[in-house]
Amino acid sequence: MSCVFGFDVGSKLIGVAVGNRITASARAIATIPVREDTPDWALLDALRSQWLPESFVVGLPLTLDGEEQAASKRARRFAERLRERYLIPVSLVDERHSSQEAAERFAQARSAGLKRRRDAAQLDAEAAAVILERWLHEAA
């Protein structure tokens, strides 16, 4: 199997993308709400059952200087919880500038008529796709 999940971890939403090792491509699939530092595990369980990923990639938010920050701790904690819950490999990848790239992709898709303003809620999932594609290209 070649399916991998990517995550963009935020304090209120976690973007989720699915990727393929063979094609080194990824696409946004969902956003998972986070309440009181706890993701909606039932939703994540359902996505995992549907896609059966063999591993996970979590974006690690670093400062522009490459230093860790409060958001880095949140991402590391989420990665560890994934590892404990699903017992499959979890990788962390530098996510610097992924949100900007996701916003640029969204703007291009809107210009082409492929996305609408209401689709902006999926920006976190698009950022997860950017993160996952970076990892897939590095792993190739």
Short key terms for the protein model shown above:
single chain; 140 residues; alpha/beta; six-stranded mixed sheet; globular
Could you describe the 3D structure shown?
The chain is an alpha/beta fold and 140 residues long. Helices cover 42% and strands 28% of the residues. The protein contains four helices and six strands. The chain has helices at residues 41-51, 70-86, 98-111, 123-139; strands at 3-9, 13-20, 25-35, 38-39, 55-60, 90-94. Strand 2 (13-20) and strand 3 form a beta hairpin. Helix 3 (98-111) packs across helix 4.
The total beta strand count reads 6
Please state the CA-atom Rg, rounded to the nearest Å: 14 Å
* String of helices and strands: EEEEHEHEHH
Cα-to-Cα separation, first versus last residue? 15 Å
Please, what is the average pLDDT?
A: 86
Helix tally equals: 4
Structural class: alpha/beta
The best one-word shape is: globular
- Strand adjacency order, main sheet: 4-3-2-1-5-6
Q: Can you give the helix content as a percent range?
A: 40-55%
What portion of residues belong to β-strands?
25-35%
